[in-house]
Design goal:
This protein is an alpha/beta fold and 313 residues long. The protein has twelve helices and eleven strands. The strands form three sheets. Strands 2-1-3-10-4-11 form a six-stranded mixed beta sheet, sandwiched between helices. A three-stranded antiparallel beta sheet has the order 8-5-9. A two-stranded parallel sheet has the order 6-7. Helix 3 crosses helix 9, helix 4 runs parallel beside helix 5 and helix 6 crosses helix 12. It holds the Pfam family Phosphonate-bd. It comes from Marinomonas pollencensis. InterPro entries: PhnD.
Length: 313
């Protein structure tokens, strides 16, 4: 078995001169070259809604997270002076479309969907969760169940592998690139790809032996194990990637600058200790500033390696 590290990603990271072919939709402007949509200078194009809509990335059942985010959203209401409602989305595509259409103002987009949300929905990410020492991120793992007969990625050949959705970094983009570059395994040619829709579906599918193997974000796996949704002895990991940036949080580009500043203030002044967020995201302790240009560079390069298009429908 090859080392638990992607040769593809290693080469991507070392190729400092490489740049992903990333462009914004024509409806957005990026004069400062930070790769995200500029805030409109025409005041008539700015939004200042009385009720703000927030959505968390649909990595698991949205109902699980309505309560998890309730205390944070109450804090945001105090800081912004606005009502804030939790909007449960069922897919990455629905989340992106909601922001593009102006129905979603604040969101947490998963790692893989960030580039498409930025390009097509005017999403402006500015923060992510981190530990006290500032460390953040998760790894992609390929998992199976004990007794499946799958002990290495090479053993997937001729079998089925569950992905989550095509917009997911850990659920599709990274494992596709890694399996091709490191193990010469290509979907449809060497194994049958399946799409579960969400990480929890893939994890439960493996635990219940519905899928022989799946590619998932281990951050979701760890939370499900901590909640007792699955047991550690139901899962066996056969591959672990390098660390990737985790879910980012940001706003729609056309909110007023004053409102965007208040929303950022709400994230950076939230008290984690004893909160529902801390209980759910046990390894995290704060929100830290990030930029799409820097922290998502490796993700854009993985997209480029996979031939991903950012065209907006």
């Amino acid at each position: 078995m090859k080392p638990m590290y992607s040769l593809l990603v290693a080469s991507i990271l070392s190729a400092s001169s490489a740049h992903a072919a990333f462009t914004l939709d024509s409806r957005y402007v990026d004069k400062d070259n930070d790769l995200i949509a500029d805030v409109p200078t025409d005041k008539s194009k700015l939004l200042d809604p009385s009720t703000l809509i927030f959505a968390y990335t649909p990595v698991e059942d949205p109902a699980v997270y309505a309560g998890v985010w309730s205390d944070f959203l109450a804090h945001m209401e105090k800081v912004t002076g606005k009502k804030v409602k939790f909007f449960p989305v069922q897919s990455n595509a629905a989340q992106i479309e909601a922001m593009r259409a102006g129905r979603l103002h604040i969101a947490g987009f998963n790692t893989g969907s960030n580039p498409l949300a930025v390009a097509c929905a005017g999403y402006r990410p500015f923060t992510m969760m981190a530990a006290k020492d500032g460390s953040y991120g998760y790894e992609m793992e390929i998992i199976t169940y004990p007794g499946s007969g799958i002990n290495t990625p090479e053993d997937i050949k001729g079998k089925k592998l569950a992905f989550t959705s095509q917009t997911s970094n850990s659920g599709f983009k990274a494992p596709s690139a890694i399996l091709k570059a490191d193990f010469d395994l290509i979907p449809d040619r060497d194994f049958e790809p399946m799409f579960s829709g969400k990480h929890d579906n893939s994890i439960l599918g493996v635990a219940n032996k519905d899928y022989p193997a799946a590619a998932v974000a281990n951050s979701v796996l760890h939370r499900m194990e901590e909640r007792g949704v699955v047991k550690a002895d139901q899962i066996k990991s056969i591959y672990k990637s390098q660390t990737f940036p985790t879910t980012s949080y940001g706003v729609a580009y056309n909110l007023t600058p004053e409102l965007q500043a208040k929303i950022k203030e709400a994230f950076f002044t939230y008290k984690w200790e004893g909160s529902p967020l801390k209980k759910e995201f046990a390894k995290e302790d704060k929100f830290v500033p990030i930029t799409f240009k820097k922290e998502w560079s490796v993700i854009r390069k993985i997209d480029e390696a996979n031939g991903v298009s950012y065209s907006c429908r």
